[in-house]
Amino acid sequence: MKVLITGFDPFGGEPINPAYEAIKMMKGNPKLCDLVKLEVPTVFGKSLETIGEAVEKERPDVVICVGQAGGRFDISVERVGINLDEARIPDNEGNFHQGKSIVEGGENAYFSTLPNRAIVKELKENRIPASVSYSAGTFVCNHVLYGLMHLIKTKYPDMRGGFIHVPFLPEQVMDKRNVPSMSLEMICRGLELAVKASVENTEDINYVSGETH
Amino acid sequence: MKVLITGFDPFGGEPINPAYEAIKMMKGNPKLCDLVKLEVPTVFGKSLETIGEAVEKERPDVVICVGQAGGRFDISVERVGINLDEARIPDNEGNFHQGKSIVEGGENAYFSTLPNRAIVKELKENRIPASVSYSAGTFVCNHVLYGLMHLIKTKYPDMRGGFIHVPFLPEQVMDKRNVPSMSLEMICRGLELAVKASVENTEDINYVSGETH
Amino acid sequence: MKVLITGFDPFGGEPINPAYEAIKMMKGNPKLCDLVKLEVPTVFGKSLETIGEAVEKERPDVVICVGQAGGRFDISVERVGINLDEARIPDNEGNFHQGKSIVEGGENAYFSTLPNRAIVKELKENRIPASVSYSAGTFVCNHVLYGLMHLIKTKYPDMRGGFIHVPFLPEQVMDKRNVPSMSLEMICRGLELAVKASVENTEDINYVSGETH
Amino acid sequence: MKVLITGFDPFGGEPINPAYEAIKMMKGNPKLCDLVKLEVPTVFGKSLETIGEAVEKERPDVVICVGQAGGRFDISVERVGINLDEARIPDNEGNFHQGKSIVEGGENAYFSTLPNRAIVKELKENRIPASVSYSAGTFVCNHVLYGLMHLIKTKYPDMRGGFIHVPFLPEQVMDKRNVPSMSLEMICRGLELAVKASVENTEDINYVSGETH
Question: Which of A181, A188, A211 to mutate to test the interface with D (most CBs of D within 10 A)?
């Protein structure tokens, strides 16, 4: 099995992005799978091109994209990406999107095909706070999730893929008031466990999840 | 023009639901539109049947469903409903859903056809905190949003519809710690303005919105 | 009985201060007490001089000072003021205090002599979210609470006094994300009830309160 | 120099207390100081007796008491303890206090004599989120802070002392929603740095702190 794991470069004024910082630290486990790491620009379009090229070259079995969700309290596994770019801030090349389809005429949304709840269960059993999320927002993270699933649906139907959001690092919240964080070690360990759960579960399990709103 | 506005009955242990409490208080404006009010049970399936019957009978131009989002800080206009029932709590008839499609084989998601950002703009100009939301959760609120849009798509293509979430009332947060609320008067006024914006804007406007995650 | 109620002018970049906005709206109840209203500058020292002059002139039985606590969810009645000015922002005349005693050599702290828990009970019974707070911060609000109690202790031992914090108004949180607010009508009504409870209870009651930290 | 550092046993339904868990892991640095560790029962009265006996026996130069502040986002150094026991929950022996003085007729409050802002600066320079807090609540943590400072004032005037609050551990927030946490390693490192700053700074430094409310 081969797993491609991607992380964004910093955006929104932050000097680092915990996603790729944690990915850099991840130890592969050759007995489990080949692990390919990729840094992705926080740019509409270009992010998907970068991922598309790596997917074409590496032909992974599983693609896990990882992004920063500043303000969230735990590692959250995204269930769905929607066909909408809409952002209050420009991406890293100054593109400012409002009400724009990612794929013109494409499906309204795609569900992740990672074993999302199995990942959450694996993390929680290892004492790492985690949950399923039902919105990846409308910035480049959702753009990549939707675009990845569209790519898989249209070109690589046997591939599985999805998206994981991680909190700020402690060093990023030092001068913010009352913003949660998670240690780099714990994020890294969480991603290692997410890879493990993704390799070991080709189908998702039942594990109580859901949001009332 | 005729507008059907619906609100849920209480759920999740709350003695009241601010959605229908506010709808009961709404004053119609006959010069603007006919306003039809409907209370809907917080039950998977039955909620959609109730709405379906009212839509068939009333043939409204616009359907606005309203629900409680306990813990949210403002009136949030939902942009998208996804094809997934997944709840940590049972509905009001004890149905407990996990990983269940709302429409078997249906589209993954539907976007609301209300002028969502025009509604947000209208509310904010009237000093009522409001925003666009990109997830209605996975409980009966999302169920109704997705099901309504499916109904519209398949049977009433000229109808427009969508969903609005409202915060707890002050009386509901009395014994909760650090949970936000909004006065009944403000929620009611917000819904009146949402009806107005929905009647006056057949297409949505551009008004900066979006979530990074 | 005569009650002096004071509210600050706007500070910290806000165009209004909900404290004095609400006080302006308060209706007196001559059967209950004479109500004297006073606007106070958000300035170390000057705020206390202003209050001191009004107290000397009016000789009220009770003094209730009111301030804005942006970010709090309810009306909070302050139990204690400490002998410390320490602020991250300058006051309205540019004074920037760190680690400064309010009264050199004065007591470390004074407890409010309002019937704090009776006020909280009165508000909650009228469906207004309220709680006892055990810190008024270290800016001009705490400065006024400590200074008022010092004045009472040293010059007017029969007078009673204290401090109440109120949340932002909805119009103040329009462009903040996830910040709670309370309607002006509810804040005003809460202050009227606080005056009533203060007149009717010369001693505080027992009403379960407290913070674990 | 000798430093006594104390941590509470678990309370409030939690199976562990991050305070003493972190203290157990702390490595002493004999070149810096002798470090004496003490577990303290979360019980009004008994907690202070336990500390009083250890202080009498060990005659430390500095006493740092540490407690859990579930829901806080960072390591917070308490500036003041007030003469008030008031709790919504019973202590670990079922004592339920409301409106009770800790020392009958004692001072209203004592300020910590740790170099609080020097500690915060030391932690932040080492990338550990930290701040000064101006309320230790009204449960056993505040009880211990006030009681310790009273003991020092009345019996050991050359001793210095104070209190530090630490967040939940990640494993404690697993089934809470949106509650922040900090890794055990980071809490432990934070306490080691607090000891260092306390030994190296006999007086506090100026380092911008303060709360508007």
Answer: A181
Type of residue found at A162: G
In this prediction the pTM is 0.97
CA-nearest residue to C212 within chain D is D139
Catalytic residue among B97, B143, B150, B165: B165
Distances (CA, A) of D33 to D55, D64, D205: 16, 13, 21
Q: How many CB pairs under 8 A join A and D?
A: 47
For chain B, the chains sharing at least 3 beta-carbon pairs closer than 8 angstroms are: A, C
The values of phi and psi at residue A169, to 5°, are -80, 155
Task: With CB atoms and an 8 Å threshold, state whether B139 touches A99.
Answer: no
State the nearest Cα–Cα gap between B170 and chain C, in angstroms. 6
How confident is the model at residue A54, as a pLDDT? 98
For residue D70 the two structure tokens come to 């579930």
CATH number of A2-200: 3.40.630.20
Active-site annotation holds for B78 = yes
The strand pairing partners of C38, in sequence order, are C6
Identity of the residue in A171, A179, A182 whose CB atom sits nearest the CB atom of D127: A171
* Tens digit of each residue's pLDDT, chain D (213 residues): 999 999 999 999 999 999 999 999 999 999 999 999 999 999 999 999 999 999 999 999 999 999 999 999 999 999 999 999 999 999 999 999 999 999 999 999 999 999 999 999 999 999 999 999 999 999 999 999 999 999 999 999 999 999 999 999 999 999 999 999 999 999 999 999 999 999 999 999 999 999 999
- Please provide the DSSP assignment of C69-83 as one string: -TT-SSEEEE-EEES
Catalytic residues of C: 78, 141, 165
| CA distance, residue A86 to nearest chain B CA (Å) | 5
What distances in angstroms separate CA C172 from CA B129, C87, C184, C185, one per listed residue? 9, 22, 11, 15
Size of interface A-B (CB pairs under 8 A): 128
Q: Sheet of B75-78: strands edge to edge?
A: B34-40, B2-8, B62-68, B160-166, B75-78, B130-133
Please indicate whether, in this complex, the C-beta atoms of B170 and C124 are within 8 angstroms of each other. Answer: no
Which chains touch A (3+ CB pairs under 8 A)?
A: B, D
User: For chain B, where are the E strands, in sequence order?
Assistant: 2-8, 34-40, 62-68, 75-78, 80-82, 109-111, 130-133, 160-166
What is the C-alpha to C-alpha distance for residues B163 and B64, in angstroms, rounded to an integer? 6
Residue C193 is given by DSSP the state: H
CA-nearest residue to B173 within chain C is C129
**In this structure, what are the phi and psi dihedrals at residue C109, rounded to the nearest 5 degrees?**
-160, 160
Q: D128, A170: Cβ pair inside 8 Å?
A: yes
pLDDT tens digits for range D70-115: 999 999 999 999 999 999 999 999 999 999 999 999 999 999 999 9
Please give the structure tokens belonging to residue C144. Answer: 């006024």
Q: At A161, which amino acid appears?
A: G
**In whole angstroms, what is the distance from residue A91 CA to residue B108 CA?**
27
Residue identified by tokens 């986002």 is D73
Q: What is the pLDDT along chain B (213 residues), one digit of tens a residue?
A: 999 999 999 999 999 999 999 999 999 999 999 999 999 999 999 999 999 999 999 999 999 999 999 999 999 999 999 999 999 999 999 999 999 999 999 999 999 999 999 999 999 999 999 999 999 999 999 999 999 999 999 999 999 999 999 999 999 999 999 999 999 999 999 999 999 999 999 999 999 999 999
Chain D positions contacting chain C at CB under 8 Å are 12, 67-72, 79-80, 82, 84, 86-89, 98-99, 107-111, 117, 132, 134-139, 141, 165, 204, 206, 208-213
Nearest-CA distance from C24 to chain D in Å? Answer: 22
Interface ipTM: 0.96
Contact C127, B171 (CB under 8 A): yes
DSSP code at position B100: B
* Structure token digits, residue A19: 């996603």
